[in-house]
Design goal:
The protein has one domain. It is 52% helix and 18% strand.
């Protein structure tokens, strides 16, 4: 049965194949205002495709803001970097599905940014971007964290208790100032650190899921033979 969402990737290979179109654009997370970035990239293939997909799947009663499409492209690249880091560390993600822009059932028209689904695990993943000072970044994180908690609770109310539902928030920074042709190295390092923490979180929970699989339990008790 189809799960209603804007996009659903049933494997990491499928996800990475999709994101290749973004990589070919040499996409950067830019410091410029979202409105300015829409003016720059609004006619690109990936922008128009995502916009069309949103309306085609009919996942919201609210009209789409073009600025939101830019944030989708940003977060797809962040998530791709996360997946690659996990794979480099030798963790198998063959059972991982990625659901993007999932409208919560009985959620008052709220949507999650992403659901990462692995066996009996659902990670409610929310992204935020800040372009201002540290105080604003804390406010941004707090707001996104509350959104994530709310989304998780709506899911928990509807899903079998044997499924573990947890939430995570990643707030990222711009990495390039296009107008000044400036690479923002400090922000890139910050994002890489945050991606590392998200990778750790995903790996920890995947390992826990694998440890309670039937075959893993048999392997554990085999130590006593």
């Amino acid at each position: 049965m189809k799960i209603k969402s804007m996009l659903k990737f049933t494997s990491c290979e499928q996800f990475k194949s999709f994101v290749e179109a973004i990589d070919k654009m040499n996409w950067k997370i830019e410091k410029q205002l979202l409105k300015e970035r829409v003016e720059k990239y609004g006619q690109t293939y990936i922008f128009q495709m995502l916009k069309k997909q949103f309306y085609q799947e009919n996942i919201s009663i609210w009209p789409l803001k073009d600025e939101e499409v830019i944030t989708w492209i940003d977060t797809l690249t962040i998530l791709r970097r996360t997946i690659e880091q996990i794979e480099v560390r030798g963790v198998q993600l063959d059972k991982l599905s990625i659901i993007m822009e999932y409208p919560l059932v009985f959620g008052n028209h709220m949507r999650t940014d992403y659901l990462l689904v692995y066996d009996r695990l659902i990670i409610v993943l929310e992204f935020g971007m800040f372009n201002q000072d540290e105080k604003r970044s804390e406010e941004r994180y707090t707001k996104k964290l509350q959104d994530s908690i709310n989304h998780r609770q709506v899911l928990v109310n509807m899903i079998d208790s044997r499924v573990k539902v947890i939430n995570y928030v990643l707030v990222y920074r711009p990495e390039v100032d296009r107008m000044k042709s400036l690479i923002m190295s400090e922000n890139i390092n910050y994002n890489n650190c945050e991606i590392g923490l998200l990778s750790d979180f995903i790996i920890k929970n995947i390992i826990e899921q694998n440890s309670v699989s039937a075959i893993s339990q048999l392997q554990i008790i085999n130590n006593f033979t």
